[in-house]
């Protein structure tokens, strides 16, 4: 209403000088809003087509395939059977209403992909197991539904139009699809070839594509398929992801979703006249549709439960999938509005249909939130940390890579962990790529890459770099590489799920800040910081955040024969510090590493750990204190400090002596050694000591590894 008011005022303030009355400007404003709403929905469907990955159908598993087909086919068959029984025995409809009824039944059974994708994104479970299953099932059902609707629209054209016009409409639809496949899609690939790597697509190409999109919408509307048909088919022809798909999404996405689409929803919703329901008792067509809406919803819900249960899914998860696939949204709203506009349905039926959209769109997200918590599977009931590993057990580490600059530091850290045949390391590398221009996240195992969506090869430089590391440590290191293409706010799901599946003991995450050679902050990415915090909260194992101050990230190995690598561990006590000590023990086996254990002892008794923690600390420090390792490479020292300022002074005096400093996170753990420091902490994910060492004001060349031990349920 506010938009209508301002548009009317704006047009009147301009047109009044031409003598145009206020009433005329009000009509013009309404018409323009109507056109904008149609354009908005058409562009929305185009973007959905751009982001849809049809290659997912080839990779669809049994659960998704069964769920996708069942949630459309079962309600459709049941709805048609119920419709036949109602119209033959209980309700008397006109011939025109009998012809329209199957189209309404099919519409009630839709499971639109855009609706499911938006719901999962709003619930922030797009990358979860349920989210991926829902997206795959929705894609299968949507393709099935689009095919049925296309045939239904053609049948309606044949019935309502002359033979010549019907053939023209059918021929133009088929011809348009052929043009898109044979001409426009190759043209899209030509645009990609003309775009240099890591360079944006030219604005000229994007403007031409937008003009073609709008023209296709006008033409498809002229030939009876609706304005959105042409843009949607054209969107499917655009290669998803960068550079073209992501460029289109970046240029149109925000404007369409935040400006044009709300106009469409508002214009469609204000046509709903709830007072027209007073005719419900006397209108047989409305009564039949009301029954069919309910029957289709119940049949869809039961079918969506049955298929996952048949595939041995947990009942609560199957119930969540049923609510997701039964949800209605903007596509259903558009379909019902279109039927009302072309008088396929009357006002009371339209009100019932919109009510079904409103109810399911409200209940479904609430129910899914109640039924499904993606973080529950990460709950720590079984120990997965370094401290409780058997002495000669393989240490499994999940290393996360955002960009190529992260690789040298991570590889040097892995090298410093002293891989050997007696003490092997299993390395799982996850390359994290931001999802742009796609609706569905992609997870790739490079051991199975031949089964992926396209000929695009992801993470080539990561593969080459880590394969070289394996060759240098033959027999001591096993390697598995993965790539996830996902929105940053959902990447923690992929990290935690992979860590859980591979039973890793440590996840290594790059810090969100990078430093230049002179020690100044070069860049920072708050998306990475948010990701790190999410992993710390949910990880099913221990987590290490690697702060590379430049030295550790040198391209050449820093742990090499004829060279010395100086490592210090700052130990205050507690489970995180003991976990950091467990990682340092592996380093002590390498003769090229000089390890110093610095224990900060409080000069007061305030804020000391519990007696049991003290016992555990003493036990873990025993081998260092009594020097069970070669004394040439290990130094144990205790420093007495009274408070935070003394700790800061001590760390400043020694920081430049080391290449790597390992600390425990000790989040919200109070001790006299850190009194006064937490108030100045900028990055809580690093803990008090880690934040101090990573501060730009703390001028040191040492990189920092901040370790958090796995959080067990009882903790």
From TrEMBL:
<dbReference type="InterPro" id="IPR050794">
    <property type="entry name" value="CPA2_transporter"/>
</dbReference>
<feature type="transmembrane region" description="Helical">
    <location>
        <begin position="32"/>
        <end position="52"/>
    </location>
</feature>
<dbReference type="GO" id="GO:1902600">
    <property type="term" value="P:proton transmembrane transport"/>
</dbReference>
<feature type="domain" description="Cation/H+ exchanger transmembrane">
    <location>
        <begin position="30"/>
        <end position="371"/>
    </location>
</feature>
<dbReference type="InterPro" id="IPR038770">
    <property type="entry name" value="Na+/solute_symporter_sf"/>
</dbReference>
<keyword id="KW-0633">Potassium transport</keyword>
<keyword id="KW-0406">Ion transport</keyword>
<feature type="transmembrane region" description="Helical">
    <location>
        <begin position="349"/>
        <end position="372"/>
    </location>
</feature>
<dbReference type="Pfam" id="PF00999">
    <property type="entry name" value="Na_H_Exchanger"/>
</dbReference>
<keyword id="KW-0472">Membrane</keyword>
<dbReference type="InterPro" id="IPR006153">
    <property type="entry name" value="Cation/H_exchanger_TM"/>
</dbReference>
<protein>
    <submittedName>
        <fullName>PREDICTED: cation/H(+) antiporter</fullName>
    </submittedName>
</protein>
<keyword id="KW-0813">Transport</keyword>
<feature type="domain" description="Cation/H(+) antiporter C-terminal">
    <location>
        <begin position="565"/>
        <end position="710"/>
    </location>
</feature>
<feature type="domain" description="Cation/H(+) antiporter central">
    <location>
        <begin position="427"/>
        <end position="554"/>
    </location>
</feature>
<dbReference type="GO" id="GO:0015297">
    <property type="term" value="F:antiporter activity"/>
</dbReference>
<dbReference type="GO" id="GO:0012505">
    <property type="term" value="C:endomembrane system"/>
</dbReference>
<keyword id="KW-0812">Transmembrane</keyword>
<feature type="transmembrane region" description="Helical">
    <location>
        <begin position="204"/>
        <end position="223"/>
    </location>
</feature>
<keyword id="KW-1133">Transmembrane helix</keyword>
<dbReference type="Pfam" id="PF23256">
    <property type="entry name" value="CHX17_2nd"/>
</dbReference>
<feature type="transmembrane region" description="Helical">
    <location>
        <begin position="174"/>
        <end position="192"/>
    </location>
</feature>
<feature type="transmembrane region" description="Helical">
    <location>
        <begin position="290"/>
        <end position="311"/>
    </location>
</feature>
<dbReference type="Pfam" id="PF23259">
    <property type="entry name" value="CHX17_C"/>
</dbReference>
<keyword id="KW-0630">Potassium</keyword>
<comment type="similarity">
    <text>Belongs to the monovalent cation:proton antiporter 2 (CPA2) transporter (TC 2.A.37) family. CHX (TC 2.A.37.4) subfamily.</text>
</comment>
<feature type="transmembrane region" description="Helical">
    <location>
        <begin position="102"/>
        <end position="121"/>
    </location>
</feature>
<feature type="transmembrane region" description="Helical">
    <location>
        <begin position="133"/>
        <end position="154"/>
    </location>
</feature>
<dbReference type="InterPro" id="IPR057290">
    <property type="entry name" value="CHX17_C"/>
</dbReference>
<dbReference type="GO" id="GO:0006813">
    <property type="term" value="P:potassium ion transport"/>
</dbReference>
<dbReference type="GO" id="GO:0016020">
    <property type="term" value="C:membrane"/>
</dbReference>
<dbReference type="InterPro" id="IPR057291">
    <property type="entry name" value="CHX17_2nd"/>
</dbReference>
<feature type="transmembrane region" description="Helical">
    <location>
        <begin position="318"/>
        <end position="337"/>
    </location>
</feature>
<dbReference type="GO" id="GO:0006885">
    <property type="term" value="P:regulation of pH"/>
</dbReference>
<feature type="transmembrane region" description="Helical">
    <location>
        <begin position="252"/>
        <end position="270"/>
    </location>
</feature>
<feature type="transmembrane region" description="Helical">
    <location>
        <begin position="64"/>
        <end position="82"/>
    </location>
</feature>
